[in-house]
Amino acid sequence: MEAVAAALQDSIVTVDSVRITGGGMITEAKVLGAAFNIANKGKVISEPIAGRDAVYVVRVDDLTTTSVAVADIEMQKDQMRQREQNKCRVFTVHRSS
After folding, report:
1. Does residue 69 come out as left (phi exceeding 0), alpha (psi in the -120 to 50 range) or beta?
2. Are 44 and 57 a contacting pair, CB within 8 Å?
3. The pLDDT of residue 46
4. Less Cβ crowding at N or C end of the chain, within 10 Å?
5. What band does 69 get if pLDDT is binned at 50, 70 and 90?
6. Side-chain half-sphere of 56: how many Cα atoms within 13 Å?
7. Radius of gyration, alpha carbons of the chain
């Protein structure tokens, strides 16, 4: 990862305490899915992930869970779907002759 960042004259951004519900710095569904895949723990994901505004190379150092007093998983899924739908709106422009 360091070599790629240097070649692109960019830097590595480390994000701590990522939540599956998004928010914060990471909101890309594919990146969140890769980060929370238990099979990726301790690994660099081999394929870059194309996002809306960036290409992500992900290294998952550790996965832990945090107790949530009231976890409404279905509501969280619905909120994530709604956020993604809001980002993908198509507008049609009609011109008068």
Report:
1. alpha
2. yes
3. 80
4. C
5. low
6. 23
7. 17
Burial of 13 (0-12, 13-18, 19+ CB in 10 A): exposed
What is the CA 76 to chain-centroid distance, rounded? 15
Q: What are phi and psi of 32, to 5 degrees?
A: -60, -40
Residue pointed to by tokens 């190379």: 57
- Cα separations in angstroms, 60 against 14, 47, 92: 10, 13, 41
| CA–CA distance, 60 with 42 (Å, rounded to integer) | 5
What does the DSSP 8-state code read for residue 41? Answer: B
pLDDT at 92 over 60: no
Supply the pLDDT for residue 11: 82
pLDDT tens column, 15-68: 777 777 666 677 888 888 888 888 988 888 888 888 887 888 888 888 877 666
